[in-house]
Amino acid sequence: MNRDGFKRITRIRLTETRILLRTKHYDGAYYLCGYAVECALKACIAKQTKRYEFPDKDKVRDSYTHKLSQLVKLAGLQTALELESASNPGFGVNWATVKDWSEESRYAEHSEQTARDLYAAVTSRKNGVLTWIKQYW
After folding, report:
1. Any idea what the CATH number is for the domain that residue 89 is in?
2. What is the model's pTM?
3. Residue 12: pLDDT band with limits 50, 70, 90
């Protein structure tokens, strides 16, 4: 998987999330929406690998995680995230909603409100987490 692949999967997962929300499949919508954020962060990590460069073994191994906070750090975005959260309270609230997503959510039930809240936190044009990530991917 390369950077463009992660970007494409991000868009696909968001489309699937919208469809699942529309058809009242909130559990799947919640899971795929968080997965879209994971893929977007992995696109940021992939951007750091230069052509013909042999990647750092630890960074590669550590990138095989689903933990969004860890992916932010691996992408080199921790400081930018902290600055954005401090200067933009709306973004900070949205990140607080998104950061707790886990791949384990695929085994859980989620209410309509929880799924819609995550989707809004991810996709908000002004303060959305994905809007912010796209600056760096």
Report:
1. 1.20.120
2. 0.93
3. very high
